[in-house]
Known about the structure:
The chain is of the alpha/beta class. The chain has helices spanning 51-56, 65-76, 85-88, 94-101, 104-109, 162-168, 176-184, 222-228, 231-244, 264-281, 295-304, 320-323; strands at 5-7, 17-19, 29-32, 81-83, 113-116, 139-143, 153-157, 187-191, 196-200, 204-206, 311-312, 315-316.
Amino acid sequence: MPARLIDVGGSDDNAIRLVDSFPQLRTYITLSHCWGDADALAGCSLTAARLDNYRQRIPKDVLPATFLHACQFARSLGQRHVWIDSLCIVQDSPADWAAQSAQMWRIYSSAWLNLSATASQAPADGLFRERGDKALGLCIIHVEEGHPALPAGQYRLYADTEWKLGVDDGPVNARAWVLQERLLAPRVLHFGEREVFWECRKLKAPEEEESDEEESDGEESDEEEDEGKNDKENVEEGADDVENGNEEGQDESKATVKDGGKGQDEGELDAWSAIVERYSEAKLSYPSDKLVALSALAEQVALAYPSSGRYLAGLWEAPLISQLPWKMRCHNNARAAHYRAPSWSWACMDGPV
């Protein structure tokens, strides 16, 4: 469980406060969002000086729209607790930041749901959007005379680029930290510019798409819980989508990487290489976080592939010879201004590899 959570209150009391004791906790929600500029969260981020006050109450007037919407949405789902990085990690405590960032994979992989402010470039943008009746741009056709391949009825047509434009190209998914959040969370609800998108290990769909999936009552079965905690599945299912999703214009972060008859080391290499390629394209507010923001996924790989050996600044000991021949995709990329990784690691460079 996280060290701290935000209690969003209930139907009778919607006060928002910080809690660090939750003995009866079964589920909680996480949030992925863009931090915006350096001052965007200065007035509300958790600091050592605010810790005691936040345990009593977090003033709503200091919270940006995205945080307020996340609390409101969680409450509407009957969920009482939300984890938000800037409110649950003491931002001016290097020790707390180091301790909590090391637990990031557990925080997101154990969450009931991850809310993603996919279309928002800053915390003030919020999750929700106003839209007209035609915002989704659906095309509905009526087939009167049936055919074996197309029975009579009403059909909805969707643009096959909707997922790429609405999710993969969304501002939040350009953040390096969000890649591991998206891959580790068992299910993600993306709040896009025009609609909401659902993503989990069994289904990926825009809101207007009809699904035959059975509804969940919010309580996971033992089988679903096991699925959500399988380390190898968590890594491989996300990486396969990162590697192959663009073939269909959709980057599913919850499908499974299949080894396809490959040995374990080769399967691990494929999974990790796909993650590194996508991760290296993403942006970091602080370049010094290059390896830190990937550490949760690295820990999952270590659990999924014990034979991969030690983690060496972005590469793995066992398949090291195969991972050393990396190259930059752009020739104008520069080495990091300050040391963060040895020269033989891709992490010493800024830009896509």
